[in-house]
Every structure is written in C-alpha cells, then in structure tokens.
Amino acid sequence: MDRWEELQQAALHGRLNRRQFMARAAALGITTSLASGVLAKAGYADDTPKKGGTLKLGLAGGSTTDSMDPRTYTDSFMMNVGASMMNAAIEIDPDNNPIPSLFESWDTKPGAAEWVFKVKQGVTFHNGKTLDADDIVYSYNLHRGKDTKSSAAVYLAGVKDIQATGKNEVTFTLTEGDADLLYSLSDYHFLVVPKDFNDWSHPIGTGAFKYDQYTPGVSARVVHNPDYWNPGRGNVDAAEYTCINDTAQRMNALVAGQVDLIHRVDTSTIDLIKAVPTLQLIQKAGGYHAIYAMRCDMAPFDNPDLRKAIKY
What we know:
Elements: H1 3-12, H2 18-27, H3 32-42, E1 54-59, H4 76-85, E2 90-92, E3 98-100, E4 103-108, E5 114-119, H5 133-141, E6 159-166, E7 169-174, H6 181-185, E8 209-215, E9 219-224, E10 238-243, H7 247-255, E11 261-262, H8 270-275, H9 304-311
Parallel strand pairs: 1-10, 1-11
Antiparallel strand pairs: 2-3, 4-5, 5-7, 6-7, 8-9, 9-10
Helix pairs in contact: 1-2, 2-3
C-alpha cells in the first residue's frame, strides 16, 4: 500500500480531520479535486460544524471542594466548565496571540502604562442584561484588593485603577508600563459576570452555554444558549462533564463510549489510540512555559555552570 492509499484509508476511517488530510495530500502532490472527492466519500464534504446532540467529556482536575467562582479555579475541570458559561474579555488564539472576545479592540498610550479597551456591543448575559463597561470593571475587580482570595490577583498587582470611561469603554491605569498586559488579562480566572453578581451556585455569563446542574468533583451539565453572540461556537444542545481523575479510567471510558472526549492522554497509549479507527488523537503545543527562577546576582546562582546544570 503506497502513501496515498494509506492517507485515503486514514480519512475513510476518521483518523484525520479535513485540514490534516488536505495538507498531507498536497504534500504528496495530489490535486485538490481528487482530494476533495475522497473527503466527500469519507463524509467530510465541508468544515461546517454539525449542530445538536450532547457532548460528553471525561476530564481530570476536579475536586469535591471546587466552586464555580472563577477566583477559585485551580485545575482543568472547572476551567472548562466555567469557560462554557462565561467569557473572557481577551482570548489567546491557537498561535498564542491575544485576540478580542468581550473586548472588541484596544489601544495603549505611549509607555504602555494606560490601556483603553472598547467593550463589544450587542452581547447579552443569560439573564437578559446587556453587557457594558461596568460589568467588565466589576469582574476584574473581583480579583483585586487586599481581601481578595483570587488565585489570579498577582496578574493585576501592577494595575493601579480600572475605570469605566464610557458606557462601552474601560481604561486600565498601571503603576508602570506593561507591554504584556493583554496576556495577563486573558488569564482563565478572568471571566465576566454582571455587575454585583455573587450567586456562584448558578453562574450567569455571556457564554455559549447556560448552567443546568453541578455536583463538585463529580459532574456538571450545561445547555445551549440560543442568544450566544459568537457564531460557529456552542453547536451542541448540551455538554456533560464527568470528573475522571484516574488516567486509566478516563481511557477506558473513552474506549467504552461512555464519553466522547478526554484529555491528559497517557503517552503510553498514543499508538493504541492511533490504531483505533473510531478514535482521533489531537495534539497541540500550549503557551505555558515553566521555569526555575534563580537570583543570578548572588551565589551560587551567579555561576552559569550551576544554572546550566539545574536546567539539564
């Protein structure tokens, strides 16, 4: 079997998505018309998402002490559940670049110590309230102040003031210039809720899904928001999250069809997943960068050989 035949079999058995197939076909010198014909036969006529149904996710990182309050998020289970109901003002795209979400644009004054953001208009919360600058200010201020218990307070430590300088305009004033502020403001804790909202047992957001039910450390269920503002997202009728902290149990649940999607795949099972026609492995580099911070101006870390040894 040659490489083109192998590629066709991978498409027919669902082991590649449309984009992956077209890229590999082009690398083999296959014409677009021929490749498109194979995709049509495999059921990949276009990239239009199929709507409806229930998506079942088996995720790790849940605990019985969890809360839906974004200030308390520490692991991926609540990060995913929260983001399904509440939006951030800024997102990070697949190439690790900040892009607009509830902020539709921004500008900074010379020196990067004052940033002005325009709030996206025409967005409504699940309770029908229209999004405005006061909601953004309130949501960020939840993570500020000496009494805040937010895990993300450190990202706003350099913010001197946040003001609604117009109905749809927010200004951040910093203690000093920060060219990377956009990345800080995109942290997963910074989800937007209506001004003065505090009922974290039933979150109200602008997200693609609305709250339905939740049992800490066990499961969560959200349902489609028909008034969602961002087209192309939130295509299923409901999403059901099951907390499966054990790696082997997550894999077993996927193979058994109990869930449609898992994460934190054990690297030892990668070849197994690739060999199963009904499973697809998706790999993507993240933007997280772990470091060992060392005081290079004092012994023994002023020795570059020592720093290199620790690195290795």
